[in-house]
Design brief:
The protein is of the alpha/beta class and about 270 residues long. It contains eight helices and ten strands. It has two domains: about 100 residues, 2-Layer Sandwich (Nucleotidyltransferase, domain 5); about 140 residues, Nucleotidyltransferase, domain 5 (2-Layer Sandwich). The chain starts with a strand and ends in a 6-residue tail after the last helix.
């Protein structure tokens, strides 16, 4: 049996996926990224390889593709491919019916249109500001003195929305702290935060060519409050993927690795 790997070196998390020659995912790992991207990738690869009895090290993989923010730092990688292409391919593998993606990473937001073969038709990217990214949500959760899971569900309880006017992460955090200090309902503040991010995704969804449905990738795809806000603002159905959305980049990279070796699905 041949095995193929994808390692997504993100600014916040490092993900690794291993698939076999049939395309089945046999190992996956998600780790908090360290300052040293090489060590983060090595840790993720070692842990993924340990899940496959036929493998002793990443060097035993038939082909390995690196992707993500630190894709040039992936040890033993045979090739590096952009995270935009890998997210498109990963979603295509997970659900071929989905043709539009909003990828919310640690430092940027991307809208991606997917072709029928999993390649990229079009994309747009917001990498000028951290507002609306994973870093933004981490800052907001800190302001609420909550973990990310608690914060992501908080807005679902809100009956009203308190708008957040600041467009910058730093100023938005200050605005939120002031509102909390004034005793405003925290669920309504959270709803305002989720709504402001959803509005930022509007242009991305248009660039992705979304007409009736879209999916979210990246760690923020697990944010239930954001998903609800996006459905409200974009008036689109947000599709839940059958595979962890945070793994899409690594899964797509692994599938590219399999395709490079001309291995067909059995």
């Amino acid at each position: 049996m041949k095995y193929f790997g994808g390692c997504d070196s993100g600014s916040t998390y490092t993900k690794c996926v291993i698939i076999d020659e049939t395309g089945k995912m046999v190992a996956n790992v998600t780790l908090k990224s360290r300052i040293n991207a090489v060590l983060s990738c090595q840790d993720a690869l070692d842990q993924a390889v340990a899940q496959v009895t036929d493998l002793n090290s990443a060097e035993d993989l038939t082909y390995l593709v690196g992707t993500g923010y630190g894709r040039n730092k992936v040890p033993f990688a045979d090739e590096n491919i952009s995270e935009i292409s890998c997210h498109a391919m990963g979603v295509h593998v997970a659900d071929p019916t989905v043709k539009a993606i909003i990828d919310i990473g640690g430092q940027d937001v991307k809208g991606i249109a997917v072709d029928s073969d999993g390649t990229v038709l079009n994309f747009a990217m917001n990498d000028k500001c951290a507002a609306g990214t994973g870093r933004f949500f981490e800052a907001m959760a800190r302001a609420f003195e909550m973990d990310l899971d608690e914060f992501s569900d908080l807005s679902l309880k809100a009956k009203n929305v308190i708008p957040i006017t600041a467009q910058c992460t730093v100023f938005a955090e200050s605005e939120v702290i002031s509102l909390v200090g004034e005793g405003k309902p925290m669920d309504e503040i959270a709803a305002g935060i989720q709504l402001s991010v959803a509005k930022r995704c509007f242009v991305m969804s248009k660039k992705a060519g979304a007409t009736d449905k879209i999916t979210l990738t990246g760690g923020c795809a697990k944010n239930a409050g954001l998903k609800a806000a996006i459905e409200k603002v974009l008036k689109l159905k947000v599709i839940d993927l059958p595979i962890d959305p945070q793994l899409m980049g690594a899964l797509g990279a692994a599938e590219f690795a399999r395709k490079k070796c001309n291995v067909q699905v059995v």
